[in-house]
Amino acid sequence: MPGGAAVRSRSGSFSSGALKQHRNSGWGVMAGAAVGEVSGRAATALPSSGRALRLSLSHYYWIWWLYHLLIADVVTEQRTTKYKFVYEFLGRDLGRIADIGCGPGVFFQYVCRNAKFVFAADVDRASLSRTFARHSREKNLAPLVMRANEIPLRDSSLDTVLFLEVLEHLEDDAGALRNIARILRPGGKLVLSVPVPPGEIDADEFGHKREGDSLPEILKLLENAGFKVHRTAYAQFKFSRLADRIIRAWRKSLHIQAPCFIGWISYLDLVLDAKRRQNGDFEPLDLVVLAEKP
């Protein structure tokens, strides 16, 4: 895809300045080799933050970091027992990676340091704009607006895919995993996470379509999509579930973000027996999986 060209999507046409800004270092060539050349799949490349985004407080990384120190939300809950497995499963030699459903980009700094090129992919254009602005100094990062079932990347074009808390939002979860298998090279790895039932179901278009997946269910889905599972790990246990209920109740009743000390409840998960945690005891809320495309 040539620098500055428009990539057509269902939401319209957008300048690909985000890729153009990398062309002198070769990143634009690498991105163009993978993006926009699979017909029938929709995507957009966002413009670079310096030219097309109105700066606001949400566009500064240090503001985002401070915000998540002061309030309790999903980031707070997951930090305690989940993130270490994500980092461990990713490893350090990530090659070309896509973070699909990247949300606020919690892992961007890590993956940009350990990858040749990073695609930040999400369905929410406004959210992705803010996230990319916070990380616009990363020279090997390019954003893509896309749906998980319509990945606009060439077959076998990626070495790694990060796919956290996305499957439960999709009607066709099996189709999304087959699509990820398509874009991964043989030997490429997938790091994903899913909630473990019981959980929420949301009627919103992008809400949860199912409560999550049990370990046997996710193993079967991955096997049917052609993956070989290497490792699994449970995360976020009964104290995280308690913190989550309190945070939701706080927001619903007071219509403001919950303070940070409520999120600290999740740290009590660390006092639970580690072996029993990984046996599925203590009401795990989340499951992290490392799989490989043979």
SSE arrangement:
Layout: E1 6-9, E2 12-15, H1 17-20, H2 27-34, E3 44-45, H3 49-52, H4 61-70, E4 71-72, H5 74-79, H6 83-90, E5 96-100, H7 108-114, E6 117-122, H8 125-134, E7 141-145, E8 158-164, H9 173-183, E9 184-195, H10 215-224, E10 228-235, H11 238-254, E11 258-259, H12 260-263, H13 274-278, E12 286-292
Parallel strand pairs: 5-6, 5-8, 6-7, 8-9
Antiparallel strand pairs: 1-2, 3-7, 4-11, 9-12, 10-12
Q: Summary?
A:
This protein has 294 residues and is of the alpha/beta class.
CATH architecture descriptor text: 3-Layer(aba) Sandwich
The CATH homologous superfamily name equals Vaccinia Virus protein VP39
Q: What profile does the largest beta sheet have?
A: 8 strands, mixed
Share of β-strand residues: 15-25%
Order of helices and strands: EEHHEHHEHHEHEHEEHEHEHEHHE
Look up the CATH topology.
Rossmann fold
Return the structural class: alpha/beta
The CATH class turns out to be Alpha Beta
Q: Low-confidence parts, pLDDT < 50 over ≥5 residues?
A: 1-33, 36-55
Report the strand count.
Answer: 12
Looking at the chains present, what oligomeric state does this protein adopt? single chain
Radius of gyration from the alpha-carbon trace, in angstroms: 19 Å
Please list the strands of the largest sheet in the order they lie side by side. Answer: 3-7-6-5-8-9-12-10
- Provide the domain count: 1
Beginning-to-end CA distance, first to last residue: 29 Å
Helix count from the secondary structure assignment = 13
Amount of helix: 25-40%
Mean pLDDT: 82
